[in-house]
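Technical note accompanying the year-one report. For the benefit of new consortium partners, we illustrate the data format agreed upon in the data management plan: each record pairs a sequence with a structure-token string. No post-processing was applied to the example shown here.
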Amino acid sequence: MSITLAIIVITCLISYQALNNRAMLEQLKHSPYTESKEKEYYRFITSGFVHGSLMHLILNMYVLYIFGEAVETYFTQVFGGTMGRINYLLLYLLAILVGDVPTYVKHQNNPSFASVGASGAVSAILFVFILFNPWSTLLLFFIIPCPAILAAVLYVGYSTWASKNQNDMIDHDAHLYGAIFGFVFAIALKPDLFSYFLQRLTEDAPF
């Protein structure tokens, strides 16, 4: 079984249980106030394995499956079988943690803020996919075809705007910083990937 499928199975099992057990959801969610006051820092990771609704879970796991399998394959090709899977797992778990840090800093004195979901990690996976395939076609809203690099720019722009202007309790910071972390993490592991990205960006451009 791939690391991607293992993550999906584990996340679905935990999320489904938490959706039917409010106390479990409360214990695992990202709550900056609780993390700060009670030192429950494990929530930085566990929050990525619970979701607010069945649709939230399905959407994140669908995107993870589509792009995660490809990124895991790229990692095994670049880093070798064992190290590729280890690096891929580190990418996913660290992206959950890094995605939660900005809201921890902003909301550690706000008892009403909380968030759940794997969106930060999924964003990291998506941006690593774009690192390897900047001109591949993605479907915005599952309908509108769009070059991956353009979708990335729109994604970062919207997440930045929403983080400052929306008050919908969606952790837009996790989306943004998870995405940036994924891109930087892959390049930090193998700096040659940035040159590869630039080469694909210029040579494969459709104009």
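Partners are asked to follow this layout when depositing records. Strands lie at 137-140, 144-147.
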